[in-house]
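Class prep. Write one:
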Amino acid sequence: MPVKLALSGDPAADKLLSRDSLALLIGMVLDQQVPLEWAFAAPLRLKERLGGRLDAAEIAAMDPDALVKVFSQTPALHRFPGANAKRVQELCRIVVDQYKGKADRVWKSAKTGDELLANVKALPGFGEQKARIFVGLLGKQLGVQPRGWEKAAGDFGKPGTFVSVADITGPEALAKVREHKQAMKAKAKADAGR
């Protein structure tokens, strides 16, 4: 049974994320400083703007200014289209150079959770927390579970939680994740005021 991710709120975009590893990586890269639905719908819009193909080698080889123009078309693919076009192009170069153009080799090549985390952290746009979230998403929703993946994912690998994109399986889960994030922001604000 194919995996059905539910991250963008758009069935066509979610279908692409579920079937195309590069689209999923691009969505994760873009998931910062914009609503997550915007970030995870962007790979489909990018594919459409690139003539119906989402190919790591083609994106890696594009003129950087041309890619920025693609990202900047209305509606922009991100709040910061220039910086994120650069990030996505660098991601694609790494996929081509280190993973033979196959985005899923980022995780399929990992024998342990620590190796998986290191692979993801080496990608542009993936800091410590986002890398752990992605390891959690891979383990919880895509069945990518090398030995030690839960430890590598940290809190984002725990079952039954609603703390990140790793836990979003539909509208109800999204609401719970948003509720958790709002509570964490309120707590941080209260702690800062003390």
Notes: The longest helix spans residues 171-192. The mean pLDDT is 95.
